[in-house]
Amino acid sequence: MVQLLRHRRASGLLALLLCVLVLPAQARVIPDLYEAVEAVPSRGATDRANASSRGLERIFVRVTGDAAIGSNPQLQPVLKKAQQYVQSYRYEMEDNQLYLHLSFDPQAVAEQVHARQLPMWPNNRPGTLVWLAVDTLQGGRSALSEKDAPELFAALDAAAMNRGLPVDFPAMDDSDRRNMPLGNLWALDEQSAERAGVRYRPDATLMGRLLQVSGERWQANWLLIQGGRSYAFDASGTSLEDVAARGVDEAANLLAQRYAVRPGDGSGQQSAVIVELSGVDSFAAYSKVSAYLQGLAQVNNAELLSVDHDRLRFALTSSVPMQNLRDAMALNRNLRQQADEGPIDLSGYRAPLGSAENPLRYRWH
Fold first, then answer.
1. pLDDT (average), residues 139-156
2. Which of 40, 175, 269, 271 has the least C-beta neighbours within 10 A?
3. C-alpha to C-alpha distances, 315 to 221, 259, 294, 330, nearest whole angstrom
4. Residue 231 and residue 109: Cα distance in Å, rounded?
5. Which CATH class is domain 128-259?
6. Rounded to two decimals, what is the model's pTM?
7. Of residues 239 and 30, more confidently modeled
8. Which of 312, 320, 233 lies closest to 20, judged by CA?
């Protein structure tokens, strides 16, 4: 059971900025979110159709963030005609096994997601640093690196790829072992995670301690740290790879719950949130800021209200809760949230956060 533990001023320039569109700056964008590889017994049409259905189900899991989305009755008709959504495919033989590489049409998939009112997890996702410690019956307790356990880390990579979660692993060199002593890792110590993670700058940290209870029984305790919150959960399995993959899978579930855009969020009501950005001191920076806000999945529209030297003020129209919008913006490392500029006197009441009198304030760098 998951527990939440914590919780310029010229009008000409303004018009020109509204006409500029460049690619938004993203933290960790998943490039192959709509690609799948399936083992097939032959190149026959029936085997290709079955593999396409399995592959499309995998894509829906990644895109929605829902591991059980394949059992949704709404999707069954879509999965049966999965080949209609395939952009390209190719075969490849590896170790006497034939594989079908599938590339699905992102726009077509997104249309099906929206038509069925399913959640949509944008492809800008938290890069997650994974620390692992293991206690085996024969070898005792140790911290693990990719060099120590290549099969295990390959299983973690595969689990992360299945869910569209970008993961990284520490080098476990002298610096890591000094900043993250084995005892602290086994204790799932958050301060050590913060200290040891400085060199990697992760968006999220996943710490796991994996205990071999018997020959075929494993138990794991996990801690996910992200955006000032921590989530603890357990997992069990019949192998080290199994219990580790379950940890990555549950971490993906938790992050999807936080970042996926769900129909009905905010009771379907659109609201304007005022965002003030300082440090925007060049034309290129103006362009990037505007395009970034327009490209946020949580934002329906971004209107530039004013430009004052290096400070921009936008009105963002969104139908998701305020916290969801703030969580999404926190993933952009070019944005640094600014401290409150002091109380605002409105006849004894404080203006609501996100209002014109009390906007969300960030610095662009």
1. 93
2. 269
3. 43, 21, 11, 18
4. 31
5. alpha beta
6. 0.79
7. 239
8. 312
* Residue type (1 letter), 61: V
> How far is Cα 284 from Cα 18, in angstroms, rounded to an integer?
13
Residue type, 67: A
Instruction: Give residues with Cβ within 8 angstroms of 137, minimum separation 6.
Output: 212, 214, 215
Report yes or no: 130 and 208 within 8 Å, Cβ to Cβ. Answer: yes
Going by C-beta distance under 8 Å and a sequence separation of 6 or more, which residues neighbour residue 347?
none
Q: What is the pLDDT of residues 166-175, one digit of tens each?
A: 999 999 999 9
Cβ–Cβ under 8 Å, residues 87 and 103:
yes
Q: The tokens 């955006």 sit on which residue?
A: 227
**Does residue 339 sit in helix, strand or coil?**
coil
- Domain extent listing, the chain: 35-115, 128-259, 264-364
Per-residue pLDDT at 240: 94
* 8 A C-beta contact, residue 204 and residue 224: yes
Backbone angles phi, psi at 194, to 5 degrees: -65, -45
Choose among 149, 184, 189: nearest CA to 169: 149
What is the C-alpha to C-alpha distance for residues 112 and 98, in angstroms, rounded to an integer?
A: 30
Of residues 255, 325, 224, the one with CA closest to residue 6:
224
DSSP of 139-169: TEEEE--TTT-HHHHHHHHHHHHHHT--EE-
Q: Which of 51, 55, 53 has its CA nearest to residue 36?
A: 55
Task: Return d(Cα 177, Cα 161) in angstroms, integer.
Answer: 27
Q: CA–CA separation, 102 vs 39, rounded Å? A: 11
Tens-place pLDDT, residues 198-246? 999 999 999 999 999 998 899 999 999 998 899 999 999 999 999 999 9
Of all residues in the chain, the percent with pLDDT exceeding 90 is: 61
pLDDT of residue 16: 30
- Tokens 């590889």 map to which residue? 37
CA distance 292 to 231: 29
Mean pLDDT of 291-311: 86
Report whether 256 contacts 67 (CB < 8 A).
no
Cβ neighbours of 179 (radius 10 Å): 17
Please check whether residue 247 is in contact with residue 2, taking contact to mean a CB–CB distance below 8 angstroms: no
